[in-house]
Amino acid sequence: MMKRSFWIFLLITGLILSVSSLGCGPRRVGVPGGPKAPTPAAPGTASQRPYTINGRTYYPIPSAHGYSEKGLASWYGRQFHGRKTASGERYDMYAMTAAHKILPLGTHVRVTNLRNDSTVNLRINDRGPFVRGRIIDLSFTAAKELGVVGPGTAPVLVTALGQPVVPGKEGGPPPVFDLGPFTVQVGAFTNRSNADRLAARISERYQTKAMVAAFDDGSRTWHRVRVFSLKERDAAEAWVEVLAKDGFGTGFVVAQD
Question: Does the model's pTM come out above 0.85?
């Protein structure tokens, strides 16, 4: 009798321990019908979300199509070299890149220094500059080619050239946006008389009216000589070559104001 009672005791004890272990063991997470995990954002969309710097909120635009902007350019160099940019890549002060507050990351732009007419093509891979009155922060190499390293800032024209590059895909030059009408700028002078004389020569040579447009960069006024109003960029680029061959210097195409 005692032997039978002993085995019954062991059986009951074992059942109790089994039930306890079920109550204290690990529980399954994500039971069907429970809350779903958030869907990951599509690659690149985070860079287009609004963001706040120094109490001010910026709203990146969804497309750079038709974008053209004038203002002051600055540059950033060694102190940021190797740091992560807003695009996730490391900043390379020797690459042809730039920071912009609202253009889609990956957008290709053409930047023209309105003081010396030099031009470079860049890729936007970072956010900034967050200094009042400045519209683009150039890499060291880009600033050097544009003549901005010495003075620190310069008035520029920023024109969007192509859609953002798709990560992981190689390709040729970005497609050019149709930003017409276009005009050709053939010179910029602080002396209005010099601008008027060049405009008169061009008007007489091509039987068309060259315009003189004033632009104040905050420290001085520039008088820019522009000629033609063309719908196609290719036609405007062709006139740049004609003007150069006829002795009117190296012009460049800009979106007409």
Answer: no
